Amino acid sequence: MAKVSVYNMEGQQVGEMDLNDAVFGVEVNEHLVKMAVVSQLANKRQGTQKAKTRSEVSGGGRKPWRQKGTGHARQGSTRAPQWTGGGVVFAPAPRDYTIKLNKKEKQLALKSALTSRVAANKFIVVDALKMEEAKTKKFQTVLDNLKVNKALVVLNENDKNVILSARNIPAVKTAQTNTINVYDILKYDTVIATSDAVKTIEEVYA
């Protein structure tokens, strides 16, 4: 089992924690990690873009001039793509970009992402994250104490004060154990998790 240090909000080590190898010590599957990221980004796309082809734009029913004898190139419609106001060649149409991964693939990708953060010493466990009031400055002090700039903060519960305190820091995102995903784990340099959050993750994914 991998061991990580447990820190308090002042950045002082207060203990150690054993991590379950079934979650934080798996063999990293880079292909599945990539597929999970591609799937997540693709599934966020609305797919509502639309432009009209030459068959959909209005007008252009009459041939602009006769076929021969004018000196112009032959034209059949003023709504062909080369005309101003004409249709678009290979115009985009609404479509579904969804890429599906099965449950086991998603879980293994998440475990691989977590394992990679532990292996790179970018996984920090804190004994607790509690804020008496929503203060961005105080939360920034906690990050400075832990020597972290860009972080994904994983909480075990919906702590309103912590979430509001972190919300205005551009390089920080908060998430609960049931909303963590591969893209966010990889996007942020460091994962900060409370000890309770780590236990919950192990219970769910082990």
From TrEMBL:
GO molecular function: rRNA binding; structural constituent of ribosome
InterPro entries xref list: Ribosomal_uL4, Ribosomal_uL4-like, Ribosomal_uL4_dom_sf
Keyword rRNA-binding: yes
A GO term from the CC aspect: ribosome
Lineage: Bacteria, Bacillati, Bacillota, Clostridia, Lachnospirales
Protein name: Large ribosomal subunit protein uL4
Oligomeric form and interacting partners: Part of the 50S ribosomal subunit.
Pfam families referenced in this protein's UniProt entry, alphabetically: Ribosomal_L4
Region (Disordered): 43-85
Coiled coil: none
Stated family: Belongs to the universal ribosomal protein uL4 family.
Signal peptide range: none
Gene Ontology biological-process annotations: translation
Species per Swiss-Prot/TrEMBL record: Cuneatibacter caecimuris
